[in-house]
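User: Some background: our group keeps a shared notebook of sequences we're curious about, and every so often someone picks one and asks for a predicted structure to add to the entry. Today it's my turn. The entry only has the sequence so far, pasted here. Could you supply the structure so I can complete it?
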Amino acid sequence: MKKRVGLFITCLADVMRPSIPMAAVELLEAAHFEVQVPMEQTCCGQPAFNSGDRVTTLALAEKFFDEFEAFDYIVAPSGSCMGTIKTHYPDVLKDQPDLLRRFAALQPRLYELTDFLCSVAQVAQVPGRFEGEVTYHDSCSGLRELGVKQQPRQLLALVPGLQLREMEQCEQCCGFGGTFAAKYGNISAAIADDKCANIQATQARAVVLGDLGCMLQIEGRLRRKGDDTTQVLHIAEVLAGKV
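Assistant: Of course. Here's the predicted structure to add to the notebook entry:
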């Protein structure tokens, strides 16, 4: 019997780039998992948490448990959303013993997509093909909260035709940071300019990453600076051949 994966598609991807969760579904099904997408799902609570609204974050955490705790695994194609759930929910729930117990039962089943594909599914091949060079941006939450570093590179190495060219300071922030970009626009833009310069210096056809917030930041800044050719791609899209 196939293990059941509950896919948390993230509210940003649902609205801005549904091709990402669709690619994630294809990858998970190719790895022989049954994928279900609870239609009631909304937000992980990250914007509320970052703004200090613990009441809303708590309500969204409980809603998340109700929708996903029945699955064998819970996977999200986003380091920032899964980072919020896996590393920050315990703080939000510290005065809620019943919810903390539910989280403790759920926590070992929570995965960012590339970590799941490597650590649990242990995929040896992927559906996609990509001709040319790419560079990879390590998104802050995935890297620093979840330890996602080698997993995406291991998966990209499976893509026929793809060559990875590392950029300088690949672990440096893109300047998005959720509400940071809205509160500190000038600083955010300066950080993004540094990131874009490092991307362009590789002369890669595309920059690949695992977080849509970073994608919007980087692509927006590249286009504002007149770069209409460098592709900005989610790793799920590349691995599934949806580019």
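Suggested note for the entry: The first helix runs from residue 11 to 16. Strands lie at 4-7, 34-36, 73-76, 110-112, 132-136, 162-164, 206-209, 231-234.
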